[in-house]
Structure formats: C-alpha cells, structure tokens
Specification:
Blueprint lengths: L1 H24 L1 H5 L13 H12 L17 H21 L6 H14 L5 H18 L7 H7 L4 H4 L2
Helix pairs in contact: 3-4, 4-5, 4-6
Amino acid sequence: MGSNFMKVLAAMIAIAALVLVLGLSGALFFLWPTSFPDQSLRITPEVLAELQALKDERKFGRDESTFYPGSPTEAVRASAQASVDAIIQSLVTELPPHPRRSVVLATFKRALIGMEQHDSEERDQALVYLHRIMSIVGVDNSGELLNVWRYGFPYGWFLRT
C-alpha cells in the first residue's frame, strides 16, 4: 500500500510540475481550448453598433475606475488601441455569419499573442476592453482563457466560491 501511495504522490507532483512549467513558459496559453464549451450568440444590428461604438472610443487613456494611469507614451497608447480595435473589427466581420462563443475566444487568442509586447498595465487594461466586448456580444466568461494569457494559469478554477 505504501508503494502505491508513493507512485500516486509522484504522479501528482509530476503533473503539478508540468502544469507549472507550461504556465510559466506560456505554452499553456497556446494549448488552451477556445471551443469548449461553445454557445450560440445573438448578434443583432444593435450588438454590432455597440461594438462599433467601442471601436470608435479612444482607448488606453487614464481610467480612474480601474486605476489605470494611461499609457506612458502616445505611441504605446496607439499601438495598444490598434490591437483592441483589430479584435473588434475582426468580430464585426466574423460574428454575423458565425455567431459563436468560440469565434470570440479564438479571435481573442489570435490577437493576444501579439499583445505580449505591451507592458503589464496595458495588458491589464486590454482585459477591461475584452470583458466589455464579451458583455456586448453575450459571452459570460472566457473559460479561463484570459487568466491563462495574463497570469499563466486558470486561477478562476481555484478562486471560485
């Protein structure tokens, strides 16, 4: 019985170490699924208009509601805004023929890879915009995709009450 316990313990430690390495290396983000569980979305002209209004907003300026001080330079602000605006434009194009949660998350995943160049403050603020997008299109959660991108791990799994 002691031998089996040691094998199980060793396997658990190995799995934990693998998850840690995958999370710290960023590989877990690349492996993270975007299509499970999927759901159909109701994309109306009003939803598309809300997305367009968000796209038209000036982004990455000072935001006291999130304690974001604003981008350090105009070049950084413009680059971060262009990244978020590209996500929105892609969704405006892709969602009407394919109104699925998986389309939203796959679009996020493709775009977030390019946002690694930004500082942590801009990445955190980008998450604010992504959550707004999710709210507009009716996606309740990212299935931990955003936590895995930002922090390397699905922290939401451990923080649920």
